[in-house]
Amino acid sequence: MREAIRYTLNFLGLFWEEVYEPDPIKHMVSIFPEESEFVPVVTPSIFVGSAALAYFGGDKVEVKRSPPMPSGFLELNKERSPFFGSKYSFDCERLSRTNPIFRKDGNILIGYDLFRTVAYFLMGAELSLGIKQVKTPDNRINLAAISEIRGAEAKIPAADLHARLLLSLILMLHKSEGLPLVLKRVSPPGRRGALAISVPVQRIGRSGSLIGKLKNILRKREIWIERISKVQDSITFFTGRGEDYSPSSIGESLLNLEENGHEVGLLASPKASVSHDVILDEYRELAETLKRGDLGIRFRSIESTVNDALESAMFVKARYAIVGEIYQGFGYPLGVSRPLKIGSLWSIPTVGRVRRERIAEVMEEIAKRGSFVSLDAMTELSVLTAINEASSREIWITTPSKMIERLEGLQGVKGAFRYDRRYLEGKITSQRQIDIQILVIPPEGKETVLEVSLEEDKPHQINLRI
Fold first, then answer.
1. Which residues pair with 196 in a beta bridge?
2. What share of the chain is helix, strand, coil (3-state, %, to 5)?
3. Residue 204's pLDDT is what?
4. CATH of domain 194-407
5. Residue 287: enclosing H or E segment and its boundaries?
6. Could you state, in order of their start, the residue ranges of all structural domains in the chain?
7. Strand 350-353 relative to strand 396-398: parallel, antiparallel, unpaired?
8. pLDDT (average), residues 72-84
9. Are 416 and 427 in contact (CB under 8 A)?
10. What is the DSSP string of 37-51?
């Protein structure tokens, strides 16, 4: 559940820290997750699920077969997402007709285990159920089955909807206390989300016969990935033991891709998702070809569970993993629209494959939500289409590694603030150089966006009249 808490709070761009006991001088609002240890309540607080029950008493209803079946649904901005496990009710003011949200003594109580629900999505539990054809016979993810199980469309990032509910409650407390809320915007200034165009290279189209090789030499024919490498935007090519090549057989081309600003990762076989020996063998070949480690992995498909695939990636100390190929359509099979860190490994969400008839719709969704995702492009034309559609919507076209660098940089941005009912004063520091936007939401009036260029370990002062 700890990963779920970190993902949720970082997704929202909050300045936060984990403490044993809140400090009323340092902290404006506190969040008590499920099964928190009992400490004095000294700030306006949000109590989640079982923590609310422990602090305030109430009624608990255990719902059988939940998970996998939902015990209820969160509804927010005309979208809905399931929640799981027990439900709680309290003898106090109910704030929402549709959602189990309550208020007592200036605190907010959430009537379900929000972080446990997020954790259920993050660990890919739905993809491991083995029911209702969650995976197709060739082990690709069936979004229609996921939607049926959730009782909500898979194109809605289900876990993120719970995070947005939490943000609305934090903002409610801040405004009721007359306090501003300060947030970090995740996207780079001027960008609306981030897209890693993922090119799984199944075959390169180069003839293996002697005559074919001679024709390629005489025509100076390029393989298609070499043509794509000339685009200015950074693309990510995943290569493995394909139908007509191996990484070592095209080593020079792969090194040239990285020299031109692109990224090369491992296209791992389905067997590698369950066998440490297989993934180690495939990983070593590419690492030796590129003369480096710390590679990312894109699994063609997974033979067992998401957890098994992530454990295989962790075994070889991969930088990140992209798990699960989507059968058709567009959606968020893990329920998240941003990368998440599990132990030392980053998991990058993938949302589908470029299809010309739906690419504009997909890009609109990415821009609207500010998603940081990967999207498969299988041909030269689909890569160029994705670039054009993303660029026209101010989406940052980048690689998974650069996404991770930005997210790690943002997590290293810390802030301390003081508000005296007229001025917001604060100090922001960063562990590395980074350009960010700071959003200040006042108790009343218009929001303020500050563009800040932070230098490594150099404090930046904020003094803003609100």
1. 374, 398
2. 30, 25, 40
3. 65
4. 3.20.110.20
5. helix 276-290
6. 2-121+162-179, 194-407, 412-465
7. unpaired
8. 94
9. yes
10. PP----S-EEEETHH
The pTM score is 0.90
Write the single-letter amino acid at 140.
R
Cα 205 from Cα 210, distance rounded (Å) = 14
Tokens of 259: 């020299």
Task: Check: CB of residue 232 under 8 Å from CB of residue 242.
Answer: no
Give the pLDDT confidence score for residue 220 in this predicted structure: 41
Residue 224 CA to its chain's centroid (Å): 30
CB 50 within 8 A of CB 88: yes
Give the mean pLDDT of 332-352.
Answer: 92
Q: Is the pLDDT of residue 356 over 50?
A: yes
Of all residues in the chain, the percent with pLDDT exceeding 90 is 60
C-beta of residue 428 within 8 angstroms of C-beta of residue 413? yes
Q: Are 465 and 457 in contact (CB under 8 A)?
A: no
| Intra-chain end-to-end CA distance of the chain, in Å | 37
- Closest-CA residue to 263 (of 235, 297, 223): 235
CA dist., res. 340 & res. 400, Å (int):
12
pLDDT (tens digit per residue) in 450-460 = 999 999 999 99
* pLDDT beyond 90 at 16: yes
- Pick the range with the lowest mean pLDDT from 25-29, 43-47, 332-336: 25-29
Between CA 466 and CA 441 the distance in angstroms is 9
Higher pLDDT: 92 or 151? It is: 92
Q: Which long-range contacts (CB under 8 A, 24 or more apart) does 176-181 make?
A: 176/44, 176/106, 177/28, 177/29, 177/44, 177/443, 178/421, 178/443, 179/28, 179/29, 179/419, 179/443, 180/419, 180/424, 180/440, 180/441, 180/442, 180/443, 180/466, 181/440, 181/441
Asked if residue 330 lies in contact with residue 351, where contact means CB atoms within 8 angstroms, the answer is yes
In the block, residue with structure tokens 């189990």: 100
Distance between CA atoms of residues 44 and 62, nearest Å: 28
Distance CA 333, CA 340 (A): 14
Distance CA 448, CA 374 (A): 31
Q: Are 126 and 117 in contact (CB under 8 A)?
A: no
What are the tokens at 69? 């079946």
The pLDDT value given to residue 223: 63
Taking Cα atoms as reference points, which of 298, 391, 395, 380 lies closest to residue 347?
298
